[in-house]
Design goal:
The complex is a heterodimer. Chain A is an all-alpha fold. In chain A, 79% of the residues lie in helices and 0% in strands. The two termini of chain A are 87 Å apart. By secondary structure, chain B is an alpha+beta fold. Helix content of chain B is 28%, strand content 40%. Chain B contains 3 helices and 8 strands, in the order ααβββαβββββ. Chain B is flat. Classes of the chains: A mainly alpha, B alpha+beta. At the A-B interface, helix 2, helix 3, helix 5, helix 8 and helix 10 of A face helix 1, helix 2, helix 3, strand 7 and strand 8 of B.
Chain lengths: 617, 185
């Protein structure tokens, strides 16, 4: 399972190892962020691993990952450069295929479909252990999209079948296939594609939304195929409170009008026009309601409703004209955009901001003015830039903390360095060194001299108990010499015998004792070396801190300031562009409302004439 | 970030304009629409993001140098191999008898571990010499029962950083999860 999941995009460590290498742990951490769709963090982790030189021997997998994360985070040039820097001879067969996959994504993104197609052809994931072909959902998605684009709908269908049902990409590919088929006039096949999408299990909100759109599209196709009853049934199945409710109702009303069921149409338009917000659907309903009444031969009522519609269109036009003038003020636009800067998790805060704007604008329909893909992208960038600006704003505080920490560490390093001298640590270390050196020279001498029954030799090897005994024997020997000459011999013999016992004990134990002493000297020498290393580290710690850290703070702030300036410029540019888009949105709605108003006035004239003609003279 | 709102807007317009064919080459993942003249905006955005991520990288390295110098640094990683017999809920870490971390996992994080990701659970400082790390894993074991197990590792801290890996594996022979702590070289 794991191998299937991480085959193409990234390489995973699949071979079980008793101990994981540090570079594999670091590679795992970048995957951990990536699998949570946190591409920025994944990229950051990859760069940190690179800077800390924790990528091990297999640098290529980190480079491929870096390019992939940069791509996923919208840094396309960085990704392209990373991939271009890879040397072909460094790549294994699988690495080459991964690289091809990344390039295919890049070419697909740029709509360079010819090159994307060539890349995709080169990707072959081989077969599983069970002999089944292996597929990657994104590869198959791109294949399906390219095939749809080229009108090869069978090819697209085959690619879609290879995408797992639970994968959201399958829903997108199916939807686009349906759209392509419809555009090519293959309505029957388009229906099948939309129906298939409707039957796909939805595991996320995006797929669920796409299914509703597919239902709507299916209703359009049915209408095109002159099957209004089926279209109505499909529209009736759409959720009443869904995102596409208004559009579905408009379509439903249109179908009823097509079939001449003006009573049903009037009911639909009435319910839509009663909404207190303005959308294209509600505006259409305001006009279509009296039109239905007119068709139902309710001329007088139709005229009343036409006049009501006229008033509402005039009112809306006044509102839009006033708002359009206010939209020239960048502060007003900036305030409006604050809605998008409210943290998503803070729903209460969000509601407050929306309520404030509802009070200001009298409705929330301004969201529609921003309903274009271009604005969507601008808003995403604007929001991201705001996040960056916030982060940069907090950075000086963070740097100040680091600065204080570095200063404290510097102070401690200085104090520790001084303590080495003032507490006599250096002096004690010298004394210990001398002792070790003395023991070492004694050992060398001991090994050089053959065993002899001399005090010098025996004392060097004796343990404390034996040393004590030898001392006592020496003292007794001195005492014996004070005795009258005739009494000395038995005592001397006895002392010699006892000393001999110690000597032979030492002979027995000499090799073992010598080895133990050698080990002791070795251990003490190593310990002394560690003490020396610590002393050196403590003495140089302050300099290391100053060199490694202190300078960095200045550089950091300089770099952060440069980014802050760029962010400020970018934000201003996007706000100006969003202001323009907002005004353009208003202008679009003004044109629509003007058009509706014109049609309404013509209808009023017509209805008035008709009423006048029907009156008895 | 009100991303949901933004997506809502994008989808709303696509639906309201009624021209579903506009989305032919992908909806939310579609290539850049041809009408937008924002190449310079893209480049500008990318330059900012690149400068930012490089700044963040250097900051992370600096932070590690300052807060967790190699001579005292210990880092603990969590990994999972298969993980069929254990659904991870939380991990508690005790270092030399003192609790230093308690981490609750979301489904997404567990999934990331299951797919081969490795979590850097804890970074801290320890004294040089012998240290003892104990990890307590809480979750649901085979048959969905509550499950709590611990694993301990002892390590000697030197002047080099220490990396401890806590790995959850499946013992197919015992039909039980296994928890292993190892010190990486």
């Amino acid at each position: 399972m794991k191998s299937f999941l991480c085959d193409l995009i990234l390489s995973c460590t699949l071979v079980a190892q008793p101990v994981t290498l540090v570079e594999d742990l670091y590679y795992g951490t970048v995957l951990y962020a990536y699998y949570q769709d946190d591409f920025q963090q994944a990229l950051l982790d990859t760069l940190v691993a690179e800077r800390l030189e924790r990528r091990g021997q297999d640098v290529v997998r980190f480079e491929l990952a870096k390019g992939s994360f940069a791509f996923a985070d919208g840094m396309y040039r960085y990704a392209e450069q990373t991939f271009a820097d890879l040397q072909a001879d460094q790549l294994t067969g699988l690495d080459s295929m991964r690289l091809t996959f990344h390039l295919a994504r890049e070419h697909f993104r740029r709509e360079d479909f010819a090159r994307a197609g060539n890349d995709l052809q080169a990707i072959d994931l081989g077969k599983t252990w069970f002999g089944r072909e292996r597929f990657h959902p994104e590869v198959e998605f791109m294949r399906a999209e390219l095939a749809t684009q080229a009108g090869d709908f069978d090819g697209a269908r085959r690619a879609i079948q290879r995408i797992d049902e639970t994968d959201g990409l399958r829903a997108y590919a199916l939807f686009n296939l349906g759209v392509g088929l419809r555009a090519a006039g293959r309505l029957q096949q388009a229906e099948t594609a939309f129906q298939q999408l409707g039957e796909t299990p939805a595991y996320d909100s995006e797929t669920l939304d796409l299914q509703q759109r597919a239902q709507l599209a299916l209703a359009f196709v049915k209408r095109e195929r002159s099957e209004p009853a089926s279209a109505e049934a499909i529209l009736g199945d759409l959720p009443a409170a869904g995102r596409y409710r208004d559009l579905a109702l408009t379509s439903y009303g249109g179908l009823a009008m097509d079939r001449g069921d003006y009573r049903l149409a009037a009911r639909i338009w009435m319910s839509l026009q009663q909404e207190d917000y303005w959308t294209e659907s509600t505006a259409t309903a305001r006009l279509a309601f009296p039109m239905s009444l007119e068709q139902m031969a309710s001329g007088e009522l139709a005229l009343i409703e036409y006049r009501a519609a006229e008033r509402s269109f005039e009112g809306r036009l006044d509102e839009l004209t006033a708002l359009s003038m206010r939209a020239d003020d960048p502060r007003w636009v900036g305030g409006l955009l604050k809605v998008f800067a409210t943290p998503e998790h803070s729903s209460a805060e969000m509601n407050d901001v929306v309520a404030r704007w509802r009070a200001e604008l009298g409705h929330t329909d301004w969201l529609q003015w921003l309903s274009t893909e271009r604005v969507h992208e601008l808003l995403l960038e604007w929001d991201e830039l705001n996040g960056i600006a916030d982060w940069l704003e907090d950075l000086p505080d963070q740097l100040a903390i680091f600065d204080a920490l570095a200063n404290e560490q510097q102070r401690r390093a200085r104090t520790a360095g001084q303590q080495i001298e003032t507490n006599g640590l250096a002096e004690n270390r010298e004394r210990l060194g001398k002792t070790i050196r003395a023991v070492h020279s004694s050992l060398v001498a001991l090994r050089a001299v053959p065993p002899s029954r001399t005090s010098d030799w025996m004392f060097r090897l004796a343990d404390p108990a034996q040393r004590e005994l030898l001392m006592q024997l020496q003292m007794q020997r001195q005492r014996v010499h004070r005795l009258p000459e005739g009494q000395r011999d038995p005592w001397i013999e006895r002392i010699d015998r006892l000393e001999g016992l110690v000597f032979w004990d030492l002979i027995d134990q000499s090799s073992q004792r010598t080895r133990a002493l050698e080990k002791l000297v070795r251990d003490d020498t190593r310990a002394l070396a560690e003490v020396d290393a610590r002393i050196v580290r403590v003495r140089t710690a302050e300099e290391a801190l100053v060199a490694g850290v202190k300078m960095d703070f200045l550089a950091f702030q300089t770099r952060a300031d440069a980014i802050t300036r760029s962010v400020g410029v970018a934000l201003a540019q996007r706000e100006a562009m969003l202001g323009k888009e907002l005004k353009a949105g208003m202008a679009r709605e003004i044109r629509q409302v003007q058009h509706h108003l014109l049609v309404t006035r013509i209808a009023i004239a017509r209805a008035t004439d008709r009423l006048a003609m029907s009156e008895p003279w | 970030m009100p991303r949901t709102t933004l997506i809502w807007i994008a989808l709303l317009v696509l639906s309201l304009t009624g021209t579903v064919a506009r989305t032919q080459t992908g909806v939310d993942r579609s290539p850049t629409p041809p009408e937008q003249p924002s190449v310079s905006f893209d480049v500008q955005m990318e330059d900012i993001k690149r400068s930012l991520v490089e700044l963040k990288r250097d900051l992370v390295v600096l932070e590690e140098d300052l807060l967790f110098p190699a001579s005292s640094q210990v880092a603990v990683f969590v990994a999972m191999d298969l993980g069929e017999f254990f659904a991870l809920d939380a991990v508690t870490l005790k270092l030399n008898g003192k609790e230093v971390s308690h981490y609750l996992y979301t489904d997404k994080q567990v999934d990331a571990l299951y797919r081969g990701g490795v979590q850097r659970l804890y970074v801290g400082n320890v004294r040089q010499g012998n240290n003892r790390l104990t990890a307590f894993f809480t979750g649901r074991g085979p048959s969905g029962r509550d499950y709590r197990r611990a694993t301990t590792v002892e390590f000697e801290k030197t002047f080099e950083p220490i990396f401890v890996e806590l790995k959850i594996t499946d013992s197919t022979a015992k039909y039980q999860p296994e928890f292993v702590a190892t010190v990486s070289p």
